[in-house]
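Predict the 3D structure for this chain.
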Amino acid sequence: MSKSQLEMVREFHVATGSPVLPSPGVPPHDRVRLRCKLIMEEALEAVGAMIGFHDEEVKRVVLKMNWLIDQIDPQAQLPSVGKELNDLLYVTHGAVLEFGLPEQMFDAVHENNLTKVGGPTRPDGKKEKPPGYVKFDAAKFLAENGWVS
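Done. Predicted structure below.
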């Protein structure tokens, strides 16, 4: 039986020493800020890819948003966070379906993310890529599997 996407992400967290809470709870402020930054960065990169922004344009916005997030004292309310994160998953899965992307692509991204294990950790807790890390090549993956030519 294959692992669920959440189980794969848990595997990555365990492999990189990232926290996995055993029951619902609000993490420390530094971890809340990091999650906000990671979500914002990935969301902006996805939007940039959909509308054709260049990486440099997205990076400028990400840096501004990261600065803003650092200025905020998180006031996370667990029920609201749970609802909104699951809404985010829902619309993300909807976009995957609307773009006709294969489920297997998540598996391939996961395997690529596991090659980040052993990389350094930034002061804010984000795991960085180790030397020799090779970025996931989505175009190659889709072409090799016959989904696009």
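Residues 29-51 form the longest helix (23 residues).
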